[in-house]
């Protein structure tokens, strides 16, 4: 833990503001720690939400979309949902109290990983219906700006195709981005030795997890070469690609993860600013 994070934790525990703790900003955006309750709609009371709406304080709500899907042998299956929710929360904290984060859609469109045990998938129509219904609920409460922030590759094209229609139907502003839209080719080249981001369970996602939630990485007992013949992956191309991911995951570091989180949080915060 860096001194900044310790100061933030102490201030949070003592219930004091960071200004009182002598800090000029909320926290380093790259740090894994985020406030356990602030800005999360699902951890707020109805009173807190209502008052923000009545005061006209709440300008944008983020709807995170992720997945519950295999992430090779070493990463937890909730990775995409956990990572996008963290980016959303940190970006919202930079605008506190003008932005809230709605309950994440934690199962996405993942039929391509169904031959790996454990993956859950929604049909495209089901996923889009869930996202729409959440947006409609927010609209019913008076929310006028929604950013659907995505963290799973399989959700990208359906969201891009449908969100403009959601906005028209509900008569409010709804936009969609994936948090990795923040990463230009130059950023990826500079930060990732493999030259790839977001990828899948490889250097980028493993670095993200090391920085944000190392408890979701389980290298113990992983012997990829030994397990490979038992995986029964039908598509040979996909099997080769997965092996590549397993190799690239070894390039991950906490520092790379912190840098990439920081870039995504600041980029998302700027998107939110544009929507206010
Ligand atoms: Zn992922």
What are the key terms here?
276 residues; alpha/beta; four-stranded parallel β-sheet; 10 helices; 45% helix; 8% strand; globular; disordered N terminus; binds zinc ion
Number of helices, where a helix is a run of at least 4 consecutive DSSP H or I residues: 10
Helix content: 40-55%
List the strand order in the largest sheet: 2-1-3-4
> In one word, what is the shape?
globular
**By helix and strand content, what is the structural category?**
alpha/beta
Q: Please report the distance between the alpha carbons of the first and last residues.
A: 33 Å
Strand content: 5-15%
N-to-C series of helices and strands: HHEHEHEHEHHHHH
Mind describing the biggest β-sheet?
Answer: 4 strands, parallel
Radius of gyration: 19 Å
Mean pLDDT: 89
Spans of at least 5 consecutive residues whose pLDDT stays below 50 are 1-26
Bound molecules: zinc ion
Number of strands: 4
List the helices and strands and how they pair.
Layout: H1 3-14, H2 46-54, E1 60-65, H3 79-93, E2 99-101, H4 124-140, E3 145-150, H5 156-170, E4 173-178, H6 185-191, H7 203-212, H8 224-227, H9 236-249, H10 254-275
Parallel strand pairs: 1-2, 1-3, 3-4
Helix pairs in contact: 3-10, 4-5, 7-10
The protein binds zinc ion.
């Amino acid at each position: 833990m860096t001194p900044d994070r310790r100061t933030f934790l102490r201030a949070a525990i003592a219930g004091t503001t960071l200004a009182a703790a002598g800090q000029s900003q909320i926290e380093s955006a790259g740090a894994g720690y985020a406030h356990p309750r602030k800005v999360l709609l699902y951890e707020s009371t109805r009173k807190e939400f209502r008052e923000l709406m009545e005061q006209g304080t709440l300008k944008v709500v983020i709807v995170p979309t992720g997945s519950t899907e295999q992430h090779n042998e070493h990463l937890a299956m909730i990775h995409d949902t956990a990572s996008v929710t963290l980016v959303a929360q940190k970006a919202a904290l930079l605008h506190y109290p003008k932005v809230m984060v709605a309950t994440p859609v934690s199962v996405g469109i993942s039929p391509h990983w169904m031959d790996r045990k454990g993956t859950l998938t929604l049909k495209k129509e089901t996923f889009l219906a869930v996202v729409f219904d959440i947006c409609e609920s927010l609209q019913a409460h008076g929310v006028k700006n929604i950013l659907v922030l995505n963290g799973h590759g399989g959700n990208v094209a359906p969201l891009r195709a449908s969100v403009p229609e959601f906005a028209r139907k509900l008569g409010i502003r709804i936009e969609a981005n994936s948090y990795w839209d923040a990463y230009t080719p130059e950023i990826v080249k500079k930060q990732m030795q493999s030259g790839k981001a977001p990828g899948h369970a490889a250097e980028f996602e493993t670095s993200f997890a090391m920085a944000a939630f190392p408890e979701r990485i389980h290298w113990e007992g992983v012997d990829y070469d030994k397990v490979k013949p038992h995986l029964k992956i039908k598509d040979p191309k996909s099997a080769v690609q997965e092996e590549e991911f397993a190799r690239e995951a070894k390039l991950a570091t906490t520092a790379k993860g912190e840098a990439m989180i920081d870039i995504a949080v600041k980029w998302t915060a700027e998107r939110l600013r544009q929507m206010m």
